[in-house]
Amino acid sequence: MSLLLRNALLLDVASGEHTEGDLRCEDGRIVESGPGLKAPQDARVIDLRGAHVMPGLIDAHVHVTASTADLGSLPSMSPSYLAAHSARLMGQMLERGFTTVRDASGADYGLADAQAEGLIRGPRLLFCGKALSQTGGHGDLRGRGVNRQDDHPCCAGVGRVADGVDAVRVAARDELRKGAHHIKVMASGGVASPTDRIDSTQYSMDELRAIVEEAEAANRYVAAHAYTAKAVNRALEAGVRSVEHGNLIDDSSVELFLRKDAFLVPTLVTYWALKEEGMAFGLPEASWRKVDEVLEAGFAALERAASAGVRLVYGSDLLGGMHRHQSEELRLRARVQSPLEVLRAATVNAAELVGMAGSIGTLAVGAHADLLVLEGDPTRDIGALAEPKNLRYVVQGGEVVSTSA
What keywords are assigned to this protein (predicted)? Predict the structure, then answer.
C-alpha cells in the first residue's frame, strides 16, 4: 500500500519548523519527503493544497478498559463484554488523532494483539497489564467490608495486590511474562481507590526497588502513580522512569526529575472531568470528594516542572463516558505551555518515554506512517488539534483510517 500526500506543510515537531513538500508512505512507513515526489503506479495520491501535516498523537496515560469510573466494578464484568467496550473506546481515540496510546493498567496482550492484527480499530496499544498495589493501596479497589481479593488473570480490573519483596518480584515477572511494555506501580493513594488517602505513600523502598530491578532486567521500565512530593520523590529515588500525575510536587521533586532524567506525565483533564461528571459516570461519592485535593494543584505542578525543564509527556487518564474529553488536555496545558511545547509532549517526548524515539511521534523517513492532516496550524492555535472536526485525515500505518474531508 502506497500513499502520497502532495503540497503539504510538514511539521517537524522537534524544531517547530514547517516545510512545504510531499510525503510518501510505503508498507506502513514514511519512505520519502520533499518537493515534487513521483507517485508509484498503485499509489493513492491526495493533494492537500497547503494543509498542515504533523505526526499522530501519543497519549501516554489511558485506561482503555475503563468503561466506567467505578473501577471496583470492573472485576465483576465479563472480560468479553469489557473487550467490546474497549474496542469502542479505542476506535474513538483513533478518530481524535491518537495513533499510539500507553495503557496505564487494565489492558492486556489480547487487546494489543487484536489491534495489531486489525481485528479491532484503534491506536497502537502499549500495555502494562495490571498495576501492582499493596494491600489497601490505590490498586486495591475492595471496600472496607470486602475481604476476598480475586486476582485471577482472566478477571478484568486495573490492579493486582502484592505485598513484600518476593511477592512484588513475582507479580512484576508475571506481567512481564505476558508481554508488558512497562510495569505500573501504585506509589501513593489516589482518587478512585476507596480505602486510602491521597497523601499516603505506598510500598516500601525495598519493594519499589525490587520492582524497578525486575523491569530493568527485562529491558523495560516502571511508571509510578504518585501525587505528593514525598511519594514522587520516593519513586524517583527507587528508579522509576515516569511519574504519573505528580500534582503535589515541590522543588525537591523537580531536582530529582532532572537528576534522574525521568519523565512527568500530568493528567489535568481527568480531574476537571471527574469534578464535573464523575458521579454521573459511576465515580463513588467518597472518591469524588477527593478530587479537590489535586484539581487546582495540577496547574501549579505543570508550571513548576515546565519552567525547570522537566521532560513532560501527554496523558489524559479519563474514565467511562469522560473519555470523550481526551483532546481537552491540549487546551488545559496551553494555559501554561506554548502550543509547540504541548505538541512535543504528545509526540517526540512521549515517543522517547516509551522507547520508540524515531519510530513514532515524528515525520522522519523510516518512522511509522502515523500522521494527521489538519485545517489549521497547531503551533499557533492548539484548537486546530483539540477540535476533532479540524482533522481532515487520520493516517495510521500509511492508510487513511478516518476522514472529515
Answer: Hydrolase
Half-sphere exposure of 133 (CA within 13 A, CB side): 28
* DSSP label of 201: B
Q: Within the chain, which residue ranges are assigned CATH 2.30.40.10?
A: 2-56+362-403
Instruction: Let me know: does 287 contact 275? Beta carbons within 8 Å.
Output: no
Q: How far is CA 154 from CA 75, 109, 111, 130, 239, in A?
A: 9, 12, 13, 11, 30
Compute the average pLDDT of residues 160-176: 97
> What architecture is the 57-326 domain classified under in CATH?
Alpha-Beta Barrel (3.20)
The model's pLDDT over 372-385, given as tens digits with 9 standing for 90+, comes to 999 999 999 999 99
Q: Which residues are part of the catalytic machinery?
A: 184, 317
Distance CA 67, CA 100 (A): 19
**Strand, coil or helix: what is 76?**
helix
Domain with CATH 3.20.20.140 in the chain: 57-326
pLDDT averaged over every residue in the chain: 94
DSSP code string of 271-335: HHHHHHHGGGGT--HHHHTTTHHHHTHHHHHHHHHHHHT-EE-------GGGGGGTTHHHHHHTT
Task: Note the pTM of the prediction, 2 decimals.
Answer: 0.95
Alpha-carbon gap, residue 56 to 207, rounded angstroms: 37
pLDDT reported for residue 153: 59
Instruction: Match domain 2-56+362-403 to its CATH number in 3.20.20.70, 3.40.50.11780, 2.30.42.10, 2.30.40.10.
Output: 2.30.40.10
pLDDT in tens, 209-241: 999 999 999 999 999 999 999 999 999 999 999
- At position 125, the amino acid (one-letter code) is L
